[in-house]
Design a protein that fits this description.
There is one protein chain. The chain has two helices and no strands. The chain is flat, with a radius of gyration of 15 Å. The protein starts with 22 loop residues before the first helix and ends with a helix.
């Protein structure tokens, strides 16, 4: 029976305080390593990064529309 990919570890359990200037880099590296270890290709990771950028861009644009 196919159970799909293994569950990803809870990243928040191992990540330093978000106010730590290194936190974002550490989080990115952790996510990247976890994705690669669970079978995602480099192209998959790039596609994910593009989707995340698109979501952030949409949120930023929405915030500007509400303010302006």
């Amino acid at each position: 029976m196919d159970q799909g990919p293994p569950n990803m570890a809870l990243i928040s359990d191992t990540t330093p305080n978000p106010r730590d200037p290194r936190a974002v880099g550490i989080l990115a590296k952790s996510i990247y390593r976890e994705l690669r270890a669970t079978g995602f290709s480099e192209q998959d990771v790039l596609a994910l990064a593009g989707e995340l950028l698109s979501l952030v861009t949409t949120d930023v644009k929405s915030g500007r529309d509400q303010v302006g």
